[in-house]
Batch of 2 targets.
Target 1
Amino acid sequence: MLRIENLHVSFDGNKILNGVDLEVPVGKVHAIMGPNGSGKSTLANTIAGHKGYDVTSGTVTYKDLDLLALDPSERAAEGVFLGFQYPVEIPGISNMNFLRTALNSIRRYRGEEEMSAAEFLGLLREKAAALGISNDMLKRAVNVGFSGGERKRNEMLQMAVLDPQFAVLDETDSGLDIDALRIVARGINAFHGPEKGLLLITHYKRLLSYVEPDVIHVLIDGRIARSGDKELAEELEEAGYAAFA
Amino acid sequence: MTDVAAYLDEARKIAAGTGAVAALKQLEAMGLPTNKLEDWRYTDLRPLRKEPFRALADGGAEAEIAVPESLSSWPRLVLLNGRCLRDASDDLSGTGIDMTQTAPAVDLASDGIEALNFALAGEPFQLNVDAGAETKGLELTLVFDGAPDRAVHTRILLRLASGTSLDLWVRVVGSGPLGWINLVEKIELEKDSRLRIFMDIDPQSSDFVTIAESIRLAAGARCEHHSIKRSAGSLRHMIRANLAGPRANLMINGAALAGHNQTLATVIEVTHSARDASSQQFFRNVAAKKGSASFQGRIVVCEKADGTDAHQSNKNLLIHPTAKANAKPELLIDADDVQCSHGTSTGQLDEAAIFYLGQRGIPELQARAFLTTAFLADIFERIPDQDFADFCRSQSDPWLANHQGGEK
Ligand SMILES: Nc1ncnc2c1ncn2[C@@H]1O[C@H](COP(=O)(O)OP(=O)(O)OP(=O)(O)O)[C@@H](O)[C@H]1O
Ligand SMILES: [Mg+2]
């Protein structure tokens, strides 16, 4: 579903990714772990099309599409979703209005009819309830004044409403209390299915006990240093990253 | 250097009546403003340096004028170049509003452009709400049309008697080419009266637009002034308010959009000359490619005005790297017991937010427009008249669509 080959990425002239190779087949869950600053978010942002990240060589192919040739909004409309490590505050735009505009933009791109206000509201309420998101949060400006955990739950709400096909979740589990983690994990599992692909970026094996990965990759210094099954998370927990460098 | 002589020559031939003649003397003494005057610092005065605009002859373009549709639910007066268009206007009988036109009294102009207005506007257009009148609202549609080398000077007086109230829509609309729109509005709010102004300034193709409003509030009077303005070649909008009586309250709430290569200057002076009065100013500017928007806001608190509560907030958004904004807040406080605050900021759209919206499927241009609308949102939310708030929202979207990315 997503194939990354020999990806080299710089930011501000600094080389950050140094030849990443990675393939996530449809229906699979892959996880990426790695020390701070190793390039995990850089990889996620590059998949999503952030302009600041300069792809110096390599390819990213998504369902036969040259993903790197598309704008961020086109990638989103093609079904690529990024759950942000640091979701952005957008003063003046309500969560509800934001999501409805996003959903209808995607539908327009796909040549589908826009969703009516009533139908949208029904969908939003249902998904929000499943994630324990209050009506008040839906009316508030996007992420403004949201706690860290609320922001992450809000990312999950966006994923649930937009229903992408491939999701990269960048530390969606960080900063969550035990109950919130359970809710978020339930959201991820509800999203996942044989038609979907998932790339989970995380520091903790805690999330991986709720959402079972098929493969775990260890990213160090902008390269995949090792890949393995879920036992690898245990190994990392005990030995730390130094052993892999 | 602006040549006042050419304007004086023409004005001497036209000006009639003691008020007009007195205004000419003031013009002669003051000259036309220059950028050296603090209150004119950010106004683009280049139009004044060209061939002088000649006053439009009576009647102007009356024949084929397209009168814009009414926007409010109130009775309406339509003025073309300062003259009432009876056919397009509603009958005001029964509304509690009196309309008259009489020879102007001698008045003190604050600058040469106002003096020129006093000399050439002819009989001011006067609206009166007398004590005991039951009034609701009025839409005053000021249509301007003429020729690119002509000027129209229009003068409006409004008085609300003690205890009365009015919702007033004022629309300044350019319907055809007109070189210079020079509008002066003087508002008297007597004790405990209440006025809400909803002002739409859309001069279209005019080169030069000068609007000077002065508002005097007596004890307990309240005024809300909400506005949206689109720029002209060079547009200056001045509001001078004097909270002359105790417990008066004033709110000025406005959004201004400076288009390509255009200059838009907002100059506000709020004077607290009596105690326990309050004033709030909220102002947002958006400037497009090579556009320039400025905000000068002065709060003056006089010596005896204890208990003053004055607040001012200005934010400027530049939607192109070549757009400019100037902000100059000023507090002059001579009383002890006052609460004053002001804040100003200038910035560009948040690129992280544009990426975030993009990642959720919203294309970049649409994301930029969405964020710009959001920047103006709290101004529009503060508007108590739903029709006017909706109108403002409906205006900003097409403007943004036309001013994105720097293309015209
Ligand atoms: N937007 C940015 N601004 C400045 N530096 C950046 C930016 N993005 C990445 N970098 C730099 O690139 C390197 C990799 O950063 P990245 O965010 O990809 O790491 P990460 O693996 O996600 O780390 P963490 O576990 O802390 O989230 C770091 O040295 C970082 O400082
Ligand atoms: Mg990161």
Note: Residues A 11, 16, 34, 36-42, 52, 85 surround adenosine-5'-triphosphate (ligand 1) (CB under 6 Å).
Target 2
Amino acid sequence: MTELPAEQRRGPGGDAGAGQAAGELLRVEGITKRFTGALALDGVDFQVRAGEVHVLLGENGAGKSTLVKVLAGVHNPDRGTVHVDGKPVRITSPQHARALGIAVIYQELTLVPELTVAENLFLGRQPRRFGLVDKARVRRDSVALLERVGLRVDPATPVKQLGIAQQQMVEIARALDLNARVLVLDEPTAVLTDTETERLLTIMGELRDQGVGLVFITHHLEEIRRIADRITVLRDGRSVGVLPAGSSVEAMIELMVGRAIEDQYPRRAGEPGEVLLSIDGLTRKGVFSDVSLRVRAGEVVGIAGLVGAGRTEVVRAAFGVDHYDSGTVTVAGERLPGGDVRAAMRAGLGLVPEDRKGQGLVLSSSVGENLGLVTMRAATRAGFVDRAGQRRRAEEMAAALRVKTSGLNQTVRELSGGNQQKLVIGKWLLADPKVLVLDEPTRGVDVGAKVEIYELVNRMTASGRGVLLVSSDLPEVIGMSDRVVVMAHGRVAGELSTEGLTQDQVMALAVQEPQQQAAEREQPQQQAAGD
Amino acid sequence: MTSPATSTRTSRGPGFALGRFLSNNGALAGLVVLAVALSILSPSFLSTRNLLNVGVQAAVVAVLAFGVTFVIVAGGIDLSVGSVAALSGMVGAWLATTAGLPGVVALLLGLATGAAAGLVNGLLVSFGRLPAFIATLAMLSIARGLTLVVSQGSPVATPDVISALGANLGPYLPVPLLVMLLFFVIASVVLNRTYTGRAMYAIGGNEEAARLSGINVRGQQLAIYALSGLFAAVAGMLLAGRLSSAGPQAANGYELDAIAAVVIGGASLSGGVGRASGTLIGALVLAVLRNGLNLLGVSPFWQQVVIGVVIALAVLLDTLRRRGR
Ligand SMILES: Nc1ncnc2c1ncn2[C@@H]1O[C@H](COP(=O)(O)OP(=O)(O)OP(=O)(O)O)[C@@H](O)[C@H]1O
Ligand SMILES: [Mg+2]
């Protein structure tokens, strides 16, 4: 081997670390992590450079969050090395990771619901004066941070009063304030709508320009196309390749799932039948007003809108979780009493809630138990649950949704985020209600599994059921619904047929201001379709 | 569902399986260690008579603790079980001895008293929206007070049916031991097979998710606390039967032993986790420990200290084990 001149041996940045590429902040080699029942990471190599967005891509359960938790000091890897700034380190705790300049936004929210937004933002690191928390400063700094992420809420609001998207923005704001050198974002956009995602991507771009190294996980491949500098693809705990910036969606899918996906939104609409769900003039003061919509047998009706448009609030009220002040909800001809979940269920309504951890799953229970939660009543004779039947049905559903688990007895807490989400849908699909309301059903689900869920939706409508689909994922709402109701500021802004519908048309209605809505109501609605 | 690759990788040797079993059953491992140590330290520990004695000692706490397991799995707490046990035993004894009702009727009414007290707990928690800690603390006081009122402060002799619960079947077999095993089976069946049992796990694990899945959370809570009251009443009968008299201060402080047994058995005080077998082992650990300390001649004052330390250690080890994953 010939000696190279000194200038050439050095990287462009004048970097001299042994084997270290230019501007490399973080490097892991051969990371292996085994849990009882699963090998989550199997010899993964991964680097993060200053000023890049490095995307981690992979199916549900591929090991992305596990890798993130190794970097965050939550998990101790069984094998492999971690280098920060070219120096080998063992990251022993989240605090240690912080001290090394690594900040993490986890897939599951970590805010304390009882505390206020400001308190959460400065949890454990409140600015102090004379030994006491400097409240004035906390407030001032909170306002600035919230401004940065574009969240318009009073910092004194308790976090539990915020919607899940708003909570996510608080998480992001908190992480931004840590001035990290490596910022890891585990599916931050799963719960965000386009507007907020846009904002987050802009912020990420700015941080990249400031030389921060970003690790970004998402199942929205369009976002990857927009921001990724490199894409590391994981499959079954192994790194199966690194794609360059600008890779096509097809290339990503191919490498991720090992096959091509023909149609991402395989909706097969039939001829709609009689009205199954009818919401008329539903109003809850200060939250939503005069909301009316219908779902017919065999139909998928979408509800689109910005965060805070009142979509979730409407479907929760219809299902009887929350109260409403006036209006009616009728399921298959039966008027619901309101505020009574079990009455709604008996009439044939079901709801897959948006917040899987808070409302959807019993994390401490097993996969089988969770899948059987809704059908348990029907499977009970004389107080005893038909466990064999419940097990068999759970097996089938877990297989149909390809839930990655070591078995029906595995605790749900140990499942990856996307696989947990599949269970929330699965337990309701098993109950097979006349009308199923899906509130953000595919949050955190990978592209392949989404198609499987859509096929199950098709199967429901083909057998004469109706589906009401609330989703912030516009391509999904447009691709899977037969018509879309757009909500803005707690009202129905319009209803659109999805034939040839574009995202811009939906957004135009979704961003309508209240005065504009009032004006349009004066004139006959020309956009109403489908009904 | 599992990719074949992962399932083949998980098979290990039998040593690993045993290690895993014991680490998942810390309380059982503790019980075994305790028993081995005591059989070395004290020759009389392993005698049939002493072991049966331990079983009898464990029975009252175990039956109480099975009831408390239901409540704790469902995310609540029941501090009233000791007092409810005393009240039920007292009502049973008083109805037979003082009011002259037939023994069996008195026994059944005593049991009904316990269930009713539990039902009131359930009403306060589910419809009254009181924190379980407060509601059952109030019941602790009310039930003890009522016991004193009924007994007028002095013990009441029990009728034969109740006394029989504390006696031996044949030359050896103590009835309390049989009752304990019977209620262990009942508690296991309730927890594992019945709708109410499965609802306990769902409600304790995530009440909101349970409600949104169509579980009648309030109705189930009534049933759960009533069951706890009923089990407490059974324990009260056992205790009264053993002494052939219901005392106004019977089972004083037993709620703490019952809760300790549940927690040593691996249940989580935040709900959603717990098993009848764990609770049984927890109750046995406490009984073996007390028995052993007696055999070794440790003063009752120090026994209190040791038992407190053991409870703290059991829970500490459990938390460490969970965190280590
Ligand atoms: N604490 C745990 N105990 C046991 N198994 C676990 C644990 N955490 C993760 N796993 C398993 O490790 C595998 C990888 O999980 P991980 O959460 O890293 O997936 P992921 O790539 O983030 O998936 P998703 O896209 O669904 O979020 C899964 O099979 C999961 O069940
Ligand atoms: Mg994940």
Note: Chain B has one domain: 56-324.
